Amino acid sequence: MSEHADMDPDQDEVLRHRVGYVARRFNQAIRTRVDEGLRPLGLTASQYAVLAILDSFSGSTNAQLARALSVTPQTMTRILGGLVGSGLVERGTSTHHARVRPARLTASGRDLVTRAHSVVDAAEDLLFAPLSAEQRAQLLDHLWACAEASPRSAVFEGF
């Protein structure tokens, strides 16, 4: 066997029992589908994720959003800045701390995230098509249980 053998489809069989490999491969597939679907709406997957969180947790801070999406506060500041500049998000002021600026969707942001939810739902439905509704629910339950047991289970703390 060559020291630098090219990966071929049969070699996926060697790695298919590795959870990290399978999770990354599935994540890449869903990310690609979601990005393709969101592009006509003028959104990236990261921007959609922020809008989706704000749709459910209006008033979230930069720090809360950064933790929820596992990005740095600086990256979240950049993402929020673009969404504010596009008129999709507005930043308020906090009565408790001068530097905390809660974020909320504007009417345009709510309209766009509603359309984007449909795009993401369609991408997920396509990728979960091999599973029955019951299998999909079980998979999500199992993945959630594993995520909750991980040290990062406090990601949504404060929501």
Describe this structure in words.
With 159 residues, the protein is mainly alpha-helical. It is built from seven helices and two strands. It has helices at residues 12-15, 19-38, 45-56, 62-68, 73-85, 107-127, 133-149; strands at residues 89-91, 103-105. The chain has a two-stranded antiparallel sheet with strand order 1-2. Helix 2 (19-38) packs across helix 6 (107-127), helix 3 crosses helix 6 (107-127) and helix 4 (62-68) packs across helix 5. The chain is globular and about 55 Å long. 18% of the residues are buried. The model is unreliable at 153-159 (pLDDT under 50).
Note the main attributes of this structure.
159 residues, globular, mainly alpha
User: Taking all residues together, what is the mean pLDDT?
Assistant: 87
Please compute the radius of gyration using only Cα atoms: 19 Å
Question: Strands across the major sheet, in which order?
Answer: 1-2
Q: Helical residue percent?
A: 55-70%
The global form is globular
Number of strands: 2
Order of helices and strands: HHHHHEEHH
Structural class: mainly alpha
What gap, in angstroms, lies between the N and C termini? 52 Å
Which residue ranges are poorly predicted, with pLDDT under 50 across at least 5 consecutive positions?
153-159
Major sheet description:
2 strands, antiparallel
Question: How many DSSP helices?
Answer: 7
Could you tell me the strand content as a percent range? under 5%
